[in-house]
Amino acid sequence: MAWFCKEEKSEAEDAWDDYVRASNSYSKARRVLFETDPLPALRKALNGGGDLFAPLHLLKDVGWDRPELAQVVVLELYACSLGLGPPGIFARLVLRRLSGS
Questions:
Q1: Is the Cα dihedral 31, 26, 75, 71 positive or negative?
Q2: How many CB atoms lie within 10 A of CB 40?
Q3: Which of 56, 67, 79, 98 is positioned for an S-S bond with 90, CB 3.0–4.6 A?
Q4: pLDDT tens-digit profile of 1-26?
C-alpha cells in the first residue's frame, strides 16, 4: 500500500491503542507513587468509603512483590472483604494473594 493511502483503524485497534496508553499511564503513576510512601494514601482510600477499586487493584497488583504493604493494611482489607458486593470480592482476592506470599 502506498504511503499516501491511509488505512482506517478498526474499533478493536483503537481500543487496543487506548488500552496500551492507559497501561503505560498506570505503570508510570504506580512507579511515581512508590517513589513516595504510599501507605498513608492507601489507608485513607481504604477507609474513605469512596471508590475502593483503586487501592484494591493496586494491592492485588503489587501484593506478590510487596506483601509487607498489604500486611500493614490487613485490618482495612478484612473490613472491606466483609462486603457482599464487588469490592468485598476483590478484597478477598487480595487477602488470598497475601496468604500465598
A1: negative
A2: 9
A3: 56
A4: 555 555 678 999 999 999 999 999 99
* Grid cell of 58 as nine digits: 493496586
In a domain, 58, yes or no: yes
Quick check: 38 and 69 in contact, CB under 8 A? yes
Residue whose C-alpha is closest to residue 87's, from 71, 100, 76: 76
Domain that residue 93 falls in: 37-99
Mean pLDDT value across the chain: 86
Q: What is the pLDDT of residues 26-36, one digit of tens each?
A: 999 999 999 99
| Residue 17 placed within a domain | no
Q: Which own/partner pairs from 40-44 qualify as long-range (CB within 8 Å, at least 24 positions apart)?
A: 42/69, 42/73, 43/73, 43/76
CA distance 22 to 28: 10
